[in-house]
Amino acid sequence: MTGPVLAVFRRELAVERAGREALVTTVPFVAAFVVLAGLAFGPEPAQLGGTAAGTAWLAVLVATVPLARTVAGAEVADDTWDVLRGLVPAGALFAGKLLWTWSALAATWLLAEGLVVVLFEVQLTPQSIYGGVVGTLALAALTTGLGVLTASGPRRRGLLAALVLPAGLPAMLAGTELAAEQTAVLPWAVLTTLYAAVVVTAVWAVFPALLEE
């Protein structure tokens, strides 16, 4: 399975290098989102510090919507989606797409966190890093599954926001709490871990059926 998974991941990197669709759609959005949030919440450091974690995670959650459109967008546009899912086993296709989407969302989270650290004058803690790694994995699984589900038609793509955003709320809430000061770390870390495990397992289980849609 390792060979096909890495082949799919390398293909995703090649597609991104050629079109830079994820880079163009997510980086300016996240940067503008964090800067505008800082302006909206006011210049007081106490106010900004209390909203830093939520701002970063909300930016990541909303960024999953345009990213989901790229999961199978290139293949559908080139009319190669049927060929790809016929050549690559469902498990390997899911793992390769998941690995790429996770990398993109982790980079998005790092960008958002870096901006709030600089602009909101907060510190990055070990528990917030753990929440970022595990939370973006859960969001990546959701984005991969729903991106494939909605790739077959423009009407389905219109449902992305309505599907991804509510389903990703637990990751955003747990990640925000893990990054907040004076909060119980263990319950939120357990919630993040269980949520990620359930989402990855569920999407992996239904992924072959999604490919038949």
Q: Can you characterise this structure?
A:
With 213 residues, the chain is mainly alpha-helical. Helices cover 84% and strands 0% of the residues. The protein has helices spanning 2-19, 21-41, 45-68, 73-77, 81-87, 90-119, 126-149, 154-157, 160-167, 169-179, 185-211. Helix 7 runs antiparallel to helix 9 (160-167). The chain is globular. The protein starts with a helix and ends with a helix. The model has no long low-confidence stretch (mean pLDDT 84).
Describe what is shown at a glance.
The chain is mostly helical and 213 residues long.
Radius of gyration: 17 Å
Task: Work out the helix count.
Answer: 11
Output the structural class.
Answer: mainly alpha
The run of helices and strands is HHHHHHHHHHH
Estimate what percentage of residues fall within beta strands.
under 5%
The largest pleated sheet is described as:
none
Helix content: over 70%
- Low-confidence segments, ≥5 residues, pLDDT <50? none
Distance between the termini: 23 Å
